[in-house]
Each structure stands twice: as C-alpha cells, then as structure tokens.
Amino acid sequence: MNELLKVNYDNDRITLSARELHEFLEIETPFKKWFGRMAEYGFSQEIDYREVMDKIVQNPKGGRPSTDYEITLDMAKEIAMIQRSDKGKEVRQYFLELERKWNSPEAVMNRALEYSRKQVKALMEEKQGLIEENNQLKPKALFADAVSASNESILIGQLAKLIRQNGYEIGQNRLFEWMRENEYLIKKGERYNQPTQKSMDLGLFEVKERTITNPDGSTRITLTTKVTGKGQVYFINKFLS
C-alpha cells in the first residue's frame, strides 16, 4: 500500500496532520477557514483534534510557525467523505485500509504486548525489590494479556497460528478435531463445527451470519464460527499449560 499521507501511531489511535490532508485534497479555501468549517461537523477539540504548531510551514511574515491540527483517523475519514471528490475518495480508501490493518488481531496483540513490556520495565525501575517477581512474567503471560486486550474475534485457523507462534505446534485441522473431541464444537449434523451450548455459555465463540445472493437471484445464509477475545485467552492457556 502506497503511503498517501504520513500518519502517527501511538498505543491508542492513529493521527495525522490536518494541514497535510488539506494540501492532499487540493482544497482552494485557505486552511484556517476550511478547518474551522470542518470542525463544525460535530468534532470536539482534544478528543477528535488538537492544536499544534507546524514547524515546517513557517509564517511568511515571520514570527510564530503556522497553526496545524493533529486529527484522529475517524475525523480524517469523515472529512474525506465530505469533500465528494476523487481525491477525497482516494484518501478515504487509504484511511480504511490503515484502519483495517490497525485493528487486525495481530496488530492489536502486538500493541498490547509492547504495552505489557513497558509496564514491566517501569515496575522494575520503580522498585528493585520487584525484579524477582517481574522475572516470572513469562512470554505466555504477556501473550495472554495481549489477547485479552483484543476486542476482535478471529477464525479458528488464526487461533491455531497464534498458538504455534507461542510454541505449541498445532494446525487448523487438528485444532478443529480437538475442539470437537472436547465438546467445544458440534461433531455432526446440520450444525457441524458450530459452537456447543457449553462453549456459548462460556463466551468462547460467536457465530457471524452473512447473507449471500446467488447468480440466479436466490439467497443463502452462511454461518462462520469465530473465537472471541475471551476464547483466545481460554484456549491459549489450555494448550500452553
């Protein structure tokens, strides 16, 4: 994916420069007037955007640098949609792709793992007496913290991949078989490979329903079993213990 605009990542969200977005969209209205108008579409300062000093765009009359705004990705998407132009459509698709990658299970877990590592380091620096306890925080525990921080459900095949990455060798087919044998998934019948009532009561799975239109105009419904964040922690601990 080509980088249309520079974005900034932190552990919570994606942000970018409103001035750079204004330039990319080729807006003829001066930036200050344009952004003021955009901000009136229900956005809140310090939540959707915050004022910053642009160190690159200098004031031609001298003095302080020009004002810029750091805006959230959600705000940028709405602004791009409002423009109703080819440039707006192009950059909005770019933002949607960024968001999809940012919210993928792998990205969410990587951020959670990094946050966990920073927390451990801070505790060790704060009090040397906690070093021994912190050394007990094995990668498995960090991994479980990362998964529990995820609100994204994943496919069973993706769960098998995550378990392998953490040291336990298992493939998608073998994981399906294990879940059926251990009564997490239904073994046969019309609901084959769908969650058992026990699994649903534990909150380990959710079933995604999708309606598909066939070429002849008829429709059919497909059901996809996905593992919840709680289910990911549950099964990973099952295998790693």
UniProtKB/TrEMBL annotation:
Which residues does the UniProt record annotate as the domain AntA/AntB antirepressor?
Answer: 17-85
MF terms (GO), sorted A to Z: DNA binding
Domain Antirepressor protein C-terminal positions:
133-240
Task: Quote the InterPro entries the UniProt record gives.
Answer: Ant_C, AntA/B_antirep
Q: Which Pfam families match?
A: ANT (PF03374), AntA (PF08346)
| Source domain of life | Bacteria
Entry protein name: Phage antirepressor KilAC domain-containing protein
